[in-house]
Amino acid sequence: PELLDYLAGRLIDQGWSLKRLHREMLLSSVYALSAASSAAPRAADPDNRLLWRFARRRLDVEALRDAMLAVSGTLDAAMGGAPLPLDDTANQRRTVYGFISRQRLDPALAAFDFPNPNLTSEQRVPTTVPTQRLFLLNSEFVERQAKALSARAKAETDGSGPARLRRLYALAYQRAPEPGEIARGLRFTAAGEE
Q: Which of 28, 99, 116, 191 would bridge with 83, disulfide CB 3.0–4.6 Å?
């Protein structure tokens, strides 16, 4: 409550400028906190009520699809235009521009708790079910994005195994791989296709 009071006061003090308020929040040290946990703060505040770390959140299907496109380097950031079916292989646009059929909901959307487009819904009911994992393992879309990510990492490095794995980790996880992760990655790529 105190944080909301402070932000409301700042909004009023800055002439109701949401842009200034957003800038202040995004440049704050709290916004830059990692989601990583450490022993001392976890012992003092296990429920994270004092916001000592970023609370992990579940991605919705739109953000998941958009993140895959962005990381693979295939995202078309063009705004506006006619909607395309999400299962169209030529559709590399953000999910918000996808065509939503009221008669036949896209299988990816249906698997990840997209609300029924024929009804009003105040919120989604998140579920974690095996069909979501199966979709990610067997989806042609996910396979295309994985291949595009691999090609991007190969093109942006000298092509050697460790350099390519470091670039993959930088693109996908925004961090450097640990030595054990590099070793596992090299064993994995040596055992099969890239």
A: 99
